[in-house]
């Protein structure tokens, strides 16, 4: 039916689904840029995990008819170039929402309860380390979700379960949006950042949101959690906020660039907990991303464009 280029591991259930529907898989693990271009030139569709897709890639992809993102963020894809060629870009909305929301909570708790330092202390025989100042209790404090989409809402629901007051800032929220019970909407970002003890980011990285969150504008003593995209937070100001003690700490799954350079001073801050852009990589989320991504490809080539998953639908004739 179609030749599908796949350059990073995708769960077997997704691959099987594609093969059962008659698609040919071109599997190659992390090819060099020249080989990626050469294979892309022969592909009808491509599955993108963390890879970028540039205008030059797209211009070299003569046969390409469909791009399937294994995940939801598409800041690394040149959507304008795809749209000009009439190529749909589909994502897997919601497939990793629970995985990321659980990870945001994991990072938050690890920072709040100094889990990494305690673990190291116990292993090193430093039992008294736990007595170095009180830890940060969540109950009764205020959390702010920036971006109240699929992941933001799943995170808000989980923060409520910790008896936190939860605010949400999302300027594009439709009036009839179904938010988890008890979430308070805020329309003034600066005021909301100054009010919250915990700030968790769940918005896309775009030209408008790059550097949107100034860590020094958060409330003194707050914790910031970023499982969205590294470019949302100014790294210099984040470091300044941590070094000065303005923030209690930060939980970071995403960086700009990825991976961060070995000299990045954030890597040496004890009040920061890090993970390697892994928030969505749970057993269930990996499976859902793979199968939904495969279904998007199958539906497109069988003449049922997955309209709810296509992000550039307005610009292309389907
Ligand atoms: N670490 C990881 O592994 C993962 C990271 N992500 C990141 O998380 C992001 C969110 O994913 P998901 O919840 O599924 O996406 P959604 O599209 O469901 O939610 C994003 C929300 O952010 C809103 N938004 C856009 N601009 C702003 C802004 N300036 N201020 C506040 N809110 C804004 C959007 O509004 P509107 O829809 O109207 O534009 C939308 O409601 C992704 O874009 C991706 O970058 C996602 C999955 C895994
Ligand atoms: O879905 C996303 O946007 C991710 O970052 C993980 O694939």
UniProtKB/TrEMBL annotation:
Broadest EC class assigned to this enzyme: oxidoreductase
Ranges that cross the membrane: none
Domain D-isomer specific 2-hydroxyacid dehydrogenase catalytic as annotated: residue spans: 4-309
Domain D-isomer specific 2-hydroxyacid dehydrogenase NAD-binding, chain residue ranges per copy: 105-279
InterPro entries: D-2-hydroxyacid_DH, D-isomer_2_OHA_DH_cat_dom, D-isomer_DH_CS, D-isomer_DH_NAD-bd, NAD(P)-bd_dom_sf
Catalytic activity, EC: 1.1.1.81
GO molecular function annotation: hydroxypyruvate reductase [NAD(P)H] activity; NAD binding
SUPFAM superfamilies hit by this protein: Formate/glycerate dehydrogenase catalytic domain-like (SSF52283), NAD(P)-binding Rossmann-fold domains (SSF51735)
Keywords, ordered alphabetically: NAD, Oxidoreductase, Pyruvate
Keyword NAD (UniProt): yes
Entry superkingdom: Bacteria
Family: Belongs to the D-isomer specific 2-hydroxyacid dehydrogenase family.
Protein name: Hydroxypyruvate reductase
Lineage: Bacteria, Pseudomonadati, Pseudomonadota, Betaproteobacteria, Burkholderiales
């Amino acid at each position: 039916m179609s030749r599908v280029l796949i350059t990073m591991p995708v769960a077997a259930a997704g691959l099987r689904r594609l093969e059962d529907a008659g698609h040919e898989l071109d599997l190659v693990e992390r090819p060099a840029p020249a080989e990626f271009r050469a294979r892309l030139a022969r592909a009808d569709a491509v599955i993108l995990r963390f890879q970028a897709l540039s205008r030059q890639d797209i211009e070299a992809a003569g046969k390409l008819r469909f791009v399937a993102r294994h995940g939801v963020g598409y800041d690394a894809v040149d959507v304008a170039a795809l749209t000009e060629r009439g190529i749909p870009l589909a994502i897997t909305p919601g497939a990793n929402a629970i995985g990321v929301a659980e990870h945001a909570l994991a990072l938050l708790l690890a920072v709040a309860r100094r889990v990494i330092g305690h673990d190291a202390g116990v292993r090193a025989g430093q039992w008294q380390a736990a007595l170095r100042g009180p830890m940060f209790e969540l109950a009764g404090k205020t959390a702010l979700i920036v971006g109240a989409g699929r992941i933001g809402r799943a995170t808000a629901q989980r923060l409520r379960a910790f008896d936190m007051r939860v605010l949400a800032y999302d300027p594009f929220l439709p009036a009839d949006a179904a938010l988890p019970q008890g979430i308070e909407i805020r329309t003034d970002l600066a005021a909301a950042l100054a009010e919250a003890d915990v700030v968790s980011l769940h918005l896309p990285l775009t030209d408008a949101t790059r550097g949107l969150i100034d860590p020094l504008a958060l409330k003194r003593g707050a914790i910031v959690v970023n499982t969205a995209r590294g470019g949302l937070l100014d790294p210099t100001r984040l470091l300044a906020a941590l070094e000065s003690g303005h923030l209690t700490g930060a939980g970071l799954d995403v960086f700009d660039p990825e991976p961060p350079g070995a000299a990045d001073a954030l890597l040496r801050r004890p009040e920061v907990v890090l993970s390697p852009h892994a928030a969505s990589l749970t057993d269930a989320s990996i499976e859902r991303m793979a199968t939904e991504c495969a279904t998007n490809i199958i539906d497109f080539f069988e003449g049922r464009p997955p309209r709810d998953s296509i992000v550039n639908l307005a610009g292309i004739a389907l």
